């Protein structure tokens, strides 16, 4: 981890003094870290991540990932509310949804139950009006 802290300083061209000032820590604490006398505390790590958001936490702690941080690919997630009601339903044959009416004094009766399946399909059951 000490080598990765040094890499951050080198990347930004920071001296020990400038790095300590940016993190709001004493200069001697940076020197002690770099020469192996002390280990970085959680507080130190959090200050470094806050001051330099391009530093990936897992890269700093475990050496996994990259620095500077590569932009992560955002996966498009479609909210359930945007699914049309006409989505094909492929319910597993071994699973039979069962709805039972449970009386509750603190809420109104349910009007719809939606069962979500692992393959991304769903099935909705509306309350039948008697």
**Strand portion:** 5-15%
SSE succession: HHHHHEE
Strand order of the largest sheet: 1-2
Largest sheet: 2 strands, antiparallel
- Gyration radius (Cα, Å) is 27 Å
What is the CATH homology-level superfamily of the largest domain? lambda repressor-like DNA-binding domains
Here the CATH topology of the largest domain equals 434 Repressor (Amino-terminal Domain)
* CATH architecture call of the largest domain: Orthogonal Bundle
Helicity range of the residues?
25-40%
- Whole-number tally of structural domains: 2
* Separation, N- and C-terminal Cα atoms: 68 Å
List how many beta strands DSSP finds. 2
**How much is the average pLDDT?**
77
Helix and strand composition category: mainly alpha
Total helical elements: 5
Any overview of this molecule?
Strand 1 (112-116) and strand 2 (122-126) form a beta hairpin. 33% of the residues lie in helices and 8% in strands. The chain is built from 5 helices and 2 strands, in the order αααααββ. The protein is elongated, with a radius of gyration of 27 Å. Strands 1-2 form a two-stranded antiparallel sheet. The chain has helices at residues 2-12, 16-23, 27-34, 42-51, 57-62, and strands at 112-116, 122-126. The chain folds into 2 domains: 2-62, lambda repressor-like DNA-binding domains (434 Repressor (Amino-terminal Domain), Orthogonal Bundle); 81-130, no CATH class. It is mostly helical and 130 residues long.
Question: What can be said about this structure in brief?
Answer:
The chain has five helices and two strands, in the order αααααββ.
């Amino acid at each position: 981890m000490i080598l990765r802290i040094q890499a951050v300083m080198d990347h930004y061209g920071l001296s020990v003094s400038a790095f300590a000032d940016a993190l709001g820590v004493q200069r001697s604490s940076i020197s002690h870290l770099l020469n192996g006398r002390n280990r970085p505390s959680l507080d130190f790590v959090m200050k470094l991540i806050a001051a330099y958001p391009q530093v990936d936490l897992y890269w700093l702690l475990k050496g996994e990932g990259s620095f500077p941080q590569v932009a992560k690919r955002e996966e498009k997630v479609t909210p359930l509310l945007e699914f049309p009601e006409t989505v094909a339903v492929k319910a597993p044959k071994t699973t039979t949804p069962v709805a039972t009416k449970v009386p509750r004094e603190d809420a109104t009766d349910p009007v719809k139950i939606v069962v979500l399946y692992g393959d991304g399909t769903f099935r909705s059951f509306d309350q039948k009006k008697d």
